[in-house]
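Q: Please design a sequence for this.
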């Protein structure tokens, strides 16, 4: 396995690389970056940066970088070269995600973008202040960035939590998107069957799935994962949510 993380971005007119490894100095990483043409000629810019390599790599994934498979980095020449079979495995695996894929023949990406904007507005303007508090967390999700950036396929990392799962589920329910977990198993089509996945990515300290069911289900209704009871007030919806299981 190569000691280097080798990423490449080819979105739009871009064609650039970012290469990194943990530095000998604790809390730092060495990186080389620049256009792909410079990676082939040894003309990349080199720096030692303070920070966590894993977090920085994840940030690069969110910006559209992908693993450059079957390549290695020759530090002596500063060039990216073809890797041998023994080192073809990437240095950093993609974090586990709930995946989505839109069929733009049925629904253009603009429909997904409208869904995201609508959810964001609903959170910010919700009648319950407890629900409003989730608005900023929602806007920080990598999957939100992917959809607003026009990506027809992508995913929400497990450690980003329940809101990412709810958005992926809403894409399936509203736009017939193909959705799956990281093992490529299809997510359920009924919200009632989503509870194991909610447990899997639960990350909210101070909240409990068992005792805060009303908040979870109100969020689900805000995302469109559940239908709102017609004409029911917030208090009535909470009462219904507390009286039934997932």
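A: Design:
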């Amino acid at each position: 396995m190569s000691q280097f993380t080798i990423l490449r971005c080819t979105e739009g007119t871009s064609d650039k690389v970012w290469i990194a490894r943990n530095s000998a100095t604790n809390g730092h990483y060495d990186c080389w970056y620049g256009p792909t043409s410079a990676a082939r000629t040894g003309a990349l810019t080199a720096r030692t940066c303070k920070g966590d390599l894993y977090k920085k790599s994840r940030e690069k994934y969110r910006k559209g970088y992908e693993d450059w498979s079957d390549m290695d980095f020759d530090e002596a020449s500063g060039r990216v070269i073809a890797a041998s079979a023994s080192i073809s495995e990437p240095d950093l695996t993609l974090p586990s995600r709930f995946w989505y894929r839109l069929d733009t023949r049925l629904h253009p990406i603009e429909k997904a973008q409208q869904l995201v904007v609508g959810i964001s507005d609903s959170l910010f303007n919700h009648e319950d202040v407890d629900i409003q508090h989730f608005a900023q967390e929602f806007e920080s999700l990598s999957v939100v960035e992917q959809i607003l950036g026009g990506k027809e396929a992508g995913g929400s990392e497990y450690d980003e939590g329940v809101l990412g799962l709810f958005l992926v589920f809403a894409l399936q329910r509203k736009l017939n998107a193909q959705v799956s977990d990281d093992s490529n198993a299809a997510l359920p089509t009924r919200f009632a069957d989503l509870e194991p996945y909610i447990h899997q990515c639960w990350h909210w300290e101070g909240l409990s799935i068992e005792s805060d069911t009303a908040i979870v289900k109100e969020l689900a209704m805000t995302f469109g994962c559940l239908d709102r009871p017609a004409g029911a007030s917030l208090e009535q919806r909470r009462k219904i949510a507390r009286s039934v299981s997932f």
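Q: Thanks. Anything notable?
A: The longest helix spans residues 109-124. Strands lie at 5-9, 16-22, 28-35, 45-50, 66-67, 71-74, 79-82, 97-101, 153-157, 178-180.
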